[in-house]
UniProtKB/TrEMBL annotation, chain B:
SUPFAM superfamilies: MetI-like. The lineage of its organism: Bacteria, Pseudomonadati, Pseudomonadota, Alphaproteobacteria, Acetobacterales. It is found in: Cell membrane. The chain crosses the membrane at residues 12-33, 104-124, 145-165, 185-207, 243-264, 295-315. Belongs to the binding-protein-dependent transport system permease family. This is ABC transporter permease. Residues 98-308 form the ABC transmembrane type-1 domain.
Automatic annotation (TrEMBL), chain C:
InterPro entries: BP-dependent_transpt_permease, MetI-like, MetI-like_sf, OppC_N. This is ABC transporter permease. Residues 101-302 form the ABC transmembrane type-1 domain. The chain crosses the membrane at residues 39-62, 104-131, 143-169, 175-193, 235-259, 279-302. Belongs to the binding-protein-dependent transport system permease family. PROSITE patterns: ABC_TM1. It is found in: Cell membrane. Pfam families: BPD_transp_1 (PF00528), OppC_N (PF12911). Gene3D superfamilies: MetI-like (1.10.3720.10).
Length: 347, 322, 315
């Protein structure tokens, strides 16, 4: 597949900076009793230093699994079965478990979706955060706690010294997510993977948390991968956006392009299904909120050809047969759709 | 301060439980029939005078409520009366025989706990592997083997066929092994403890493994790994303590029922403990001994429940001390 | 993606959705069928039931045939006449093991029937009524949880056996076994009551129940036709587990010598032959293995049912 890609137009623009992390042809499969589920099946994307990449897709599109794969933490029975993950030029998939552990939390950190379940319920906030610092930076318990308190302050938690002694169940959801963010930032990582960081929160808290993330990212000059199903969130946060569907990438472009000139039919459908503030969708109104008909395919037996063909308004006979390959149609804008000129692999 | 009040409340509740159970037991025994008639049922040829004096001697005269309060007051002073068949104070016998029972039960539970933790960690961290499958199957089989049947198999193999371990008793009657009471005692403990360890390990492993698997898939475990903590710390520090919470209840039951299941263990191995004593007491209709032992066993159960509740508070900060 | 992908979620998503969503039971059966352990348990339980029903036809001897003793063939090792040998009373071991299956099932089913009735009534009332009733009933259940069941049963069986001598009760066949069954039932209900309470409490506020109340369904119908059937799956798991436990308990009572001397039970066999373990181990091993198979069957069945009805709980 890589050779097909190379034969097409050069996907990287000339002056592109060297990406901090680059995922190439990543494949993560679940080996279940019923067969192999191809949750992530040949995915490419990259993140430049200081940039935020938004990965958008619906449930089951493989976006969370692919970000866990970057930490080599896909849960069994899933396994990363192919591809490369180049972090600062080195393939993470060939690292030893020990090297990998030294990277996690220190160079690459993660913010989880559900703050209620991602903190250990039986340890105090201070204990579980300082443990990480003690381990990575060989700091003393006291030093670690001071640094944790400092960070808690930074993520907007008042009275951090009291919070240190509290347990997760004593904090509100928004507060817990702030703790989760502080935990990710403890060792000043180069890359933060944020997996739906606001989905489990109240709408008002969501905005605060997003603002905090944007602020911290600029302050620490981190790169960020923001995984979400919410177009609104990426519109606000991301420099570039990758749209995923059924374990494959549909389209990658800078945020402005995705919103102003989306090319892939799935991206278009996603954008059209976003409610607009200047439109009325109530019963009897002229227009109904457009939805994407059908449901995502069964990844145990993915359809031949393009994964989206049976829900695609523009599908032609070839779409059932040919698996499209991502191709650059403009500098920094790649699409995988044969209707947009992508080459493909015949089934 | 909250903790002290909580413990005090649980203590009071436990006392109520024991009191309630004592009422139920006493009522039940008396509902079955007049204790003195039962006591003398299989000892024919009693004159009325003898019956009367025996009744007075064992405190079995007077109305049921009178008898209950007399009995309760005596129990509170750790006076369980005098055994009919042994003609000894029941309280002394409870201590002597109780120690023999604890001697095999306590080590068995502790060993089983350590072994099952190790097995569960090995299995749960390799979920879906052959080892894990083997552990589940083995634990399920072991859990379904009746305890006494394990004992019988152990005796057959190690005492009768291999002839290396004694099949009954706590001490040799004639020649002590290596002329040492200690070594001889330990030598006799091997099989009964082995049986209890086998059974307890199977059940504990079944619980602990599934609890650990459940915890290991939680977000906070992925988060701990994503923070770069070494696997050893993640499993033993973060997962195990959480996984232990549901197992605690069973562990409490295990300590609670160890006297309750002793009759079977001690019959299989002819062990001179509370269980064997209880069987003897029932067979011989030794009324004070039956009541005393039943109360002690209840006391253990309630005590274990109380300790479990306290342990929960210590291990899980989410439990509110209301 | 709303939840981190677990295999279950992946598999679930891949199941084609039929036009009419399958009911609770059918879904449960679908999941149960995939559980190898559960199916093995079902097979073992079916085997025991079959043996219990067919024992008069398949057993090589009559259950009370002690003629081997007269021939001097007691405690004989297995041979072609006595496939599992004879015991010290001259009984054919295989015959008695086969007949023991019906006793075991009678004990297990009988005890759990008693326990279920008490448990569902007490737990159901507690859960549905709530408030002070709930509090009182659950405290009552707690008392039963700290009664040392096993030793109390031993004592009661023994004492009761003396009291009935000379009364009309003595004419009841297998009175001793009945006593054990009823006692087991009377002590094993608290877990069922707790579960029933939790389920009634949950279902009381379920939308379909509130809808039924809205259209004026009678209270009796709400309890029996709307709430109880939906509470059954969780209760059945406990009952399956309890049957195994009750069988084991009866065996232990009999093993210790307090069983029904007239009943043909595995525990009785163990009791009578344990002294002769050294010379005739087959007479002990066979009933022991039968108990093991039966208890294993019910445990596996319960395990499979747990998976089938609460897939979230396990693997």
């Amino acid at each position: 597949m890589l050779s097909t890609l190379a034969s097409a137009a050069d996907p990287t623009p000339m002056a592109a900076p060297k990406p901090l992390i680059e995922v190439q042809d990543l494949k993560v499969h679940f080996f279940t009793r019923d067969g192999v589920v191809r949750a992530v099946d040949g995915v490419d994307y990259g993140v430049n230093p200081g940039e935020t990449l938004g990965i958008v897709g619906e449930s089951g599109s493989g976006k969370t699994v692919s970000s866990l794969a970057m930490l080599r933490l896909v849960p069994p029975p899933a396994r990363t079965v192919g591809g490369r993950i180049l972090f600062e030029g080195e393939d993470l998939l060939t690292r030893t478990p020990k090297q990998m552990a030294a990277l996690r939390g220190r160079r690459i950190a993660m913010i989880f979706q559900n703050p209620a379940t991602s903190l250990n319920p039986i340890y105090s906030i201070g204990a579980q955060l300082s443990e990480i610092l003690v381990w990575h930076e060989k700091a003393s318990r006291r030093q670690a706690e001071e640094r944790v308190a400092e960070l808690l302050n930074l993520v907007g938690i008042t009275d951090p010294l009291t919070r240190l002694r509290q347990f997760p169940h004593e904090l509100s959801g928004g507060m817990k997510q702030r703790v989760g963010i502080a935990r990710a930032l403890l060792c000043n990582p180069a890359l933060v993977l944020a997996d739906e960081p606001t989905t489990a929160l109240d709408v008002t808290i969501q905005a605060q948390i997003l603002e905090l993330l944007a602020d911290l990212q600029a302050r620490f000059h981190m790169s960020m991968v923001l995984v979400t199903h919410d177009m609104g969130v990426v519109a606000r946060m991301a420099n570039r956006i990758t749209v995923m569907y059924a374990g494959r990438v549909c389209e990658t472009a800078d945020a402005a392009t995705i919103f102003s000139a989306p090319q892939h039919p799935y991206t278009r459908a996603l954008l059209e299904s976003m409610p607009r503030i200047d439109q009325s969708y109530s019963r009897g109104a002229r227009q109904k909120l457009p939805t994407i008909a059908g449901r995502p395919p069964n990844l145990l037996n993915p359809p031949a050809g393009c994964r989206f063909h049976d829900r695609c308004p523009e599908a032609i006979a070839d779409c059932r047969r040919i698996l499209p390959v991502e191709t650059a149609i403009a500098p920094g804008h790649t699409v995988s759709c044969i209707r947009r000129g992508s080459p493909g692999i015949a089934a | 301060m909250g903790t002290a009040r909580y413990i005090a409340r649980r203590l009071i509740f436990s006392a109520c439980l024991i009191l309630g159970v004592s009422v139920i037991l006493f009522a039940m025994i008396n509902a079955i029939g007049n204790p003195i008639e039962i006591l003398l049922a299989e000892r024919p040829g009693m004159t009325d005078e003898v019956i009367e004096s025996v009744s007075r001697y064992y405190g079995l005269d007077g109305s049921v409520t009178d008898r209950y309060f007399t009995w309760l007051w005596a129990i509170l002073r750790f006076d369980f009366g005098t055994s009919i068949i042994y003609n000894q104070p029941v309280s002394e016998m409870l201590v002597t025989y109780g120690l023999e029972t604890l001697k095999i039960q306590i080590p068995a539970i502790l060993i089983a706990l350590v072994v099952s933790v190790l097995i569960s960690v090995m299995a749960a961290t390799r979920q879906y592997s052959r080892l894990d499958f083997g552990v589940i199957a083995g634990a399920m089989l072991g859990h379904s083997l009746p305890g006494f049947f394990i004992g019988i198999l152990l005796i057959l193999v190690f005492s009768y066929w291999l002839g290396i371990l004694p099949s009954y008793g706590a001490y040799s009657t004639r020649n002590m092994l290596m002329n040492s009471t200690l070594i001889d005692g330990l030598w006799h403990m091997v099989l009964p403890v082995g049986m209890l360890v086998f059974f307890n390990t199977a059940t504990l492993t079944l619980l602990m493994r599934s609890s650990l698997v459940e915890v290991l898939r939680q977000d906070f475990i992925t988060a701990a790994r994503a923070s770069g903590l070494p696997e050893r710390r993640v499993v033993f520090g973060h997962a195990l303590r959480n996984a232990f919470i549901p197992v605690l209840t069973y562990l409490g039951i295990l300590f609670g029922v160890m006297l309750g299941t002793a009759p079977v263990t001690e019959t299989v191995f002819t062990w001179p403990g509370l269980g064997a004593l209880y069987i003897m007491a029932i067979q011989q209709l030794d009324y004070p001994l039956i009541m005393g032992e039943t109360m002690i066993i209840t006391f253990m159960l309630v005590g274990a429940t109380l300790l479990t509740d306290i342990a929960y508070v210590a291990i899980d900060p989410r439990i509110r001390l209301a | 993606m709303d939840t981190p992908i677990v295999p279950e979620a992946v598999a679930e998503a891949s199941i084609a959705v039929p036009l009419r969503p399958p009911g609770l039971w059918r879904q449960g059966w679908y999941r149960f069928r995939r559980n190898r352990g559960g199916m093995l348990g079902l097979g073992l339980v079916a085997l025991v039931v079959l043996v219990a029903l067919l024992c008069p036809f398949v057993a090589p001897f009559a259950p009370n045939d002690q003629s081997a003793m007269l021939r001097g063939a007691a405690r004989k090792a297995p041979d072609w006449v006595h496939l599992l040998g004879t015991d010290r009373n001259g009984y054919d071991v295989l015959t008695r093991v086969l007949y023991g299956a019906s006793t075991a099932l009678a004990v297990g089913l009988g005890a759990m029937a008693v326990a279920s009735v008490i448990g569902v009534i007490i737990g159901g009332i507690a859960g549905y009524a709530g408030g002070l009733t709930d509090e009182l009933l659950m405290r009552f259940a707690e008392f039963f949880m700290v009664i040392p069941v096993f030793v109390v049963i031993l004592a009661v069986v023994r004492l009761f056996g003396i009291v009935v001598v000379g009364t009309w009760l003595e004419s009841i066949p297998n009175l001793n076994l009945m006593t054990i069954i009823v006692l087991l039932g009377c002590f094993e209900w608290p877990p069922i009551a707790r579960m029933a309470r939790a389920e009634f409490l949950r279902l009381k506020h379920a939308e379909f129940v509130e809808a039924a109340i809205c259209i004026g369904t009678k209270k009796r119908d709400i309890l029996l036709r709307h709430i109880l059937p939906n509470a059954l799956p969780s209760l059945i798991v406990l009952v399956a587990l309890g049957i195994g436990g009750a069988i084991l308990a009866e065996t232990m009572v009999s093993f210790l010598g307090f069983g029904d001397p007239k009943a043909v039970s595995w525990g009785q066999q163990l009791h009578f032959n344990y002294e002769a373990l050294k010379v005739a181990p087959w007479a002990v091993l066979s009933p022991g293995a039968a108990i093991f198979v039966t208890v294993l069957g019910f445990n596996l069945l319960a395990d499979g049912l747990t998976d089938a009805f609460n897939p979230r709980l396990r693997r």
